[in-house]
Amino acid sequence: MRQVKKVTMATACLVALTGVFATSGQANFTTLEEQQRNIPIEISSSQTIVEKSELIKRFKELFPGKFDYLNNSDFYMHNGYRYYDDEDETIRYSLSFHKEVKGQMISGDIGFIGEDLKVEHFYYSPGNEAEASFPPKVSEEEAQKIAKEFLTNLNVDDNYRLDDTYQDYYYDSDINRPLTEPVRYNFSFVKEKDGVAISDQRIQVTILGNGEVTQFHTQQPPKKQTFDKLDNIVEKAEISKKFKENLSIDLQYQVEYEPYSGEAYANLVYVPFNTISGIHAENQKWLTYNGFKDVFPKQTDIKMLADKPVDLSNKGEFTVEKAREIAEDILATNSNDIKLRIESVDLREDHLGREVISVHYMYEYRNGGYGTTLEFNKETGDMINYHNILRSVMNDLEGNKNIANNYSYQQALTKATEYVKKYVPSYLHYYSMPVNEQAYYNNYNGEYQFTFPRVKDGIIVMGDQISVGVSAEDGSFTSINVNHFELDTWPSVDDVLSEEDALEMFSTNLDTSLRYERGIQNEDEHHYFSIYLPVFNEKEMNFLNAITGEWRSEQEKEEPIFLSHPWAEKEINYLLNSKILKVDDITTFDANEKISKGKALEVMIKSLTRMYPDYYRGDTENINHTFENIEPDHPLFQVVEQAVNMGILDKEKTTFPEEEMLTREELAVWYIRALGLEEAAKRNHIFKVPFKDSSQITDQYRGYVVLAEELGLLTTSNDRFNPTQKITYAQIAVSSFRFARKASEQRPYHRYYY
């Protein structure tokens, strides 16, 4: 392999950046920095320094014998690329493949980094995913062993340990895991140094239920890295005492919203340590949003940007033409080597339900170009999303240069406040000046990022803020993002726990955790500091629901449900933990109880596809519905309409009897319709019914029942089908897995999305 020299850019793509808000007192010091350094710069094929054959050879060395059926022509090599601010300009490469093998489509992608071609990421979609469905061939413990062996094969060092607090996606939502999807085990490994976890160095591995490794991703550490020594750290007990002596809490609103519906709602929470995030393990300085402080910082007062709404009555209608005019003014460049091109201006609705005018633009120059989007609120004319990419273009043309820090925090804040008042005037009365010096200074691009939090009735609103960027070199406007939620209702502060009671709960449940952290403001970005972090109720990033008194955590992982049953135990528990089956009270739930048609249909549909809570946003009056009693606001609306769409339910009827108990012959009809076999089932005369109780089967259901039994979906007992017997939860649990497996076989590429 040839020595890597300086690589210039041929083509480039840029991910538009938005302002980042860190939860008060729990700031993630690397979030914004990582976003801004992960700008991929592609190099031209003529500059590629690794041959495709080298990558293929390396790939097959890592997986001996596994991918021998792939020829060189089956691989596609992507041009090398680097991240924009990589100091040593480390180049990354990737291979992808897609091929039909024995009637099954397989695909994958693998990424390599550096001269020694270490694996940075790996994705593999085998054609036999059906083999990984429930029941899995390997247990979670066996999958964990496979994951560790995989890391060993990749020569990952021994300093990574399994992090059992890892949050699986499905545990963090109400979204069900369909039975048509394979069982997946997700593992996260965190790197340790001298027994202390390094916060930003992790490896993620996914193992299918059949033992296949399908995903791998590692966070690359900085090339230059130094660490605090642990020789003289303070004892944990002393740090815990210091935390308790200075413990403070703050009542805040917390905005949460359904990403699929856009519906937002607010909770009232008590947040600990609103001004600090930890303590240095050796010198015991307080870690704040702006670096280390000798004295515990007090919370600053709230100062609103405006006491009342700004009068905009004379502003006039904000049009597409006006948006283009403002964009051309703010994006203008004096360089003769760079040309601004407005590619398009369009009107759309964003994820918060706002009408947005989007200005798509490109800076073109000799080696290619950068492009992104500038956005305005159509109703008010406020600029709600902008990031200055001109500096990135200039750096590519002229090379990286040291950026002078000519503006102090206070000077930059003054400029940021001016930009907020100029570009987002209609929002000013909702937001305050930054509290607790909440600003981030990015050493790489010389920018301050300020957060102006929303305030409701004197209470800070987490998750709703205006983020503004200011150049430390010349005070210019570099970015803005407005994350404003329209909420109809807010929880009442009259219903919250007293501050004294909440403070006692935090104090009683306080512990500490020693971590290595870097990216700390005003410090060497390559150095890892030993930091004691506060832990509440055994979780970092923990807070308290101010009304219910329940602990909430961004790391919260639900405990798996386990119920005993003589013959349907595994199936019942899988349905419950996969959010396919929901019951009102798990402590009184009896799997031998009869199941209603509504509940049974929900289990059946969720076995095939994901159902998203609150799928429909806003006004539901104009949404059509099939049955009079299942309107758009009904909890089963999505399920029922999906069943109608699939031909399971008879849409000629006016109502759906959701509370009626479901019989075995009715379930047979549903299953056969869902599998697309109804036309065959209707031909009753061709079916011989081999059951002793055949006379009890409804005439029009005879074909459905026979097919359901022949396909193994529903079984007989003593040669009796028992067509009128009511289905129990346990029975539908067992048959659901047979049905889902058959559905995957019958329609392997069909997806039941509604």
Protein described:
The protein is of the alpha+beta class and 754 residues long. Among the domains are: 1-19 and 29-125, no CATH class; 127-211; 236-301 and 492-553, no CATH class; 569-746, no CATH class. It is 21% helix and 26% strand. It contains 15 helices and 28 strands. The strands form two sheets. It has a 16-stranded mixed sheet that branches. Strands 12, 13, 17, 18, 19, 20, 21, 22, 23, 24, 27 and 28 form a twelve-stranded mixed sheet that branches. A hairpin with a 5-residue loop joins strand 14 (278-280) and strand 15. Helix 10 crosses helix 11. The longest helix has 18 residues, at 729-746. It is globular. The two termini are 51 Å apart.
What is the topological layout?
Elements: E1 11-12, H1 31-37, E2 40-42, H2 52-62, E3 75-83, E4 92-101, E5 104-113, E6 118-125, H3 140-153, E7 160-162, E8 184-193, E9 196-208, E10 213-218, E11 226-227, H4 236-245, E12 249-257, E13 264-272, E14 278-280, E15 286-288, E16 291-293, H5 320-331, E17 339-349, E18 355-365, E19 368-377, E20 383-387, H6 390-398, H7 409-423, E21 439-442, E22 447-456, E23 459-471, E24 477-483, H8 499-508, E25 510-517, E26 527-536, E27 542-545, E28 551-553, H9 569-577, H10 597-608, H11 637-645, H12 664-674, H13 678-681, H14 702-710, H15 729-746
Parallel strand pairs: 9-25, 11-26, 12-23
Antiparallel strand pairs: 1-2, 2-3, 3-4, 4-5, 5-6, 6-10, 7-8, 8-9, 9-10, 12-13, 13-27, 14-15, 14-26, 15-16, 17-18, 18-19, 19-20, 20-24, 21-22, 22-23, 23-24, 25-26, 27-28
